[in-house]
Amino acid sequence: MSQYILIQSKSAWASGGVADFYAMAHQLAAAGHEVTLFLVQNGVLSARAGARDLHLSEIAGPRLRVLADDFSLRERAIDAERLAPGIAAAAIGVVVDLLAAGARSIWN
Amino acid sequence: MAKITLGIMDPPYESANTTTAFRLIDCALRKGHEVFVFCYEGATALGYSGQKKHANAVHGSSLEEEDHPNPKEWIAALFRLAGQRGVKLTWCNCGLCVDERGVENQVEGACRGSPVSAWNNFEDASGALLIGTN
Amino acid sequence: MAKYLCIVRSAYRATIEEQDDPALWFTHAMGSAGADVSVLLRGDAVSYATKGQDARGLQFGDCAVKGPDIPRDIRSMLDAKIAVYVTREDLSTRGIDEARLAIGIRAMNESAIGELVGGFDRILAF
Questions:
Q1: Domain coordinates in residue numbering, chain A
Q2: pLDDT per position as a tens digit, C57-89
Q3: Which residue of B has its CA nearest to C25?
Q4: What phi and psi, each to the nearest 5 degrees, are found at residue C56?
Q5: In the predicted model, what is the mean pLDDT of residues C22-50?
Q6: Statement: C3-125 belongs to CATH 3.40.1260.10
Q7: Of C43, C118, C125, the CB nearest to A31
Q8: Measured between alpha carbons, how far is B86 from B65 in angstroms, rounded to an integer?
């Protein structure tokens, strides 16, 4: 099995392809791969506690870690201590570390 | 340490993707990794040496006060960082993309390549990321 | 040598100016150089797999605009043994009948995307 870093940069409400991207992340995790979904830029808008992104809330699980870029959160005044369930704030270094470790990457 | 290859496509001043790409490159260099950047399409304008700063009447700021970013300076700063850390940074532009945009005058250190250059550097990298454009 | 899957999601972006789709062109260039590449057309980009696309006839002032020939480019990629996939769901959402696809395009179900992706070493998502 492989490690994946999937980087989600688009707003879930402004872009039709985000649900498909979440679905792909879920399929990879269900197949046994270790998946990190890293929300960045407007992708972090879904991370705010109370945001209604039903697709995202359905997919986080033991093999699918969901992280939100700390800078993007701060840029959008989203409290990193009050994120939606299953999402944690993280530094962009996580992406670099995974790339350096050979994780397969996909950007959306 | 590892080698990370990044492909980018967005022209300057048009997308948040550019900022994220620079953050990734900076972070990777600081961690001691080699970084190969392949600029495709509009991203070839990031290093264009003809970029200029400007004042901002809406902000009420002079040229100096506004200190408007020019990505060519960010690239130069990344080369300095790489030098300080003793790691290699390659800033490679797709040559045909440069030609059609007329941006052949580039920041010092930028080089010219093709999708084959990108492929070769995807092949021997630990991690490869392409940031596509909208 | 790594196996590459190029995912193309945007369609008809700058294709008139470039006389091709830059993502497909890049992929074809890699393939021509010997890389093992396949293409997954997603979202609106599934339109690239259809027969009959015609971008001819534009003129700006006295300047005739040649435009792209996407069906030709897709044909060339298929002839070069570059596999091109589309999903049935993306087709049906857009009212595209599989009979309208260029010969050689591989239609698949969205539920198999993860399995497809898992078979490649590098994913380039344009």
A1: 3-107
A2: 888 888 888 889 999 999 999 999 999 999 999
A3: B115
A4: -80, 160
A5: 95
A6: yes
A7: C118
A8: 33
To the nearest whole Å, the CA of A76 is away from the closest chain B CA by 13
Mean pLDDT of A72-76: 92
What integer pLDDT is reported at residue C51 of this predicted model? 93
Q: For domain B3-49+65-131, give its CATH number from 3.40.640.10, 3.40.630.30, 3.40.1260.10, 3.40.50.880.
A: 3.40.1260.10
Averages of pLDDT over each 10 residues, chain B, 134 residues: 97 93 96 98 98 92 91 95 97 98 98 98 98 93
B16 part of contact set with chain C, CB < 8 Å: no
pLDDT, position A74: 93
CATH class of the domain defined by A3-107: alpha beta
B39 in reach of chain C (CB within 8 A) = no
CA dist A44 and A87 (Å) reads 10
Tell me whether residues A28 and C118 touch, CB distance under 8 A.
yes
Among A108, A47, B113, A82, smallest CA distance to C7 is for A108
Q: Which residue of chain A has the CA closest to B124?
A: A102
Contacts of C40 (CB under 8 A, 6+ apart): C5, C6, C7, C8, C85, C86, C113, C116
3-state secondary structure of C125: strand
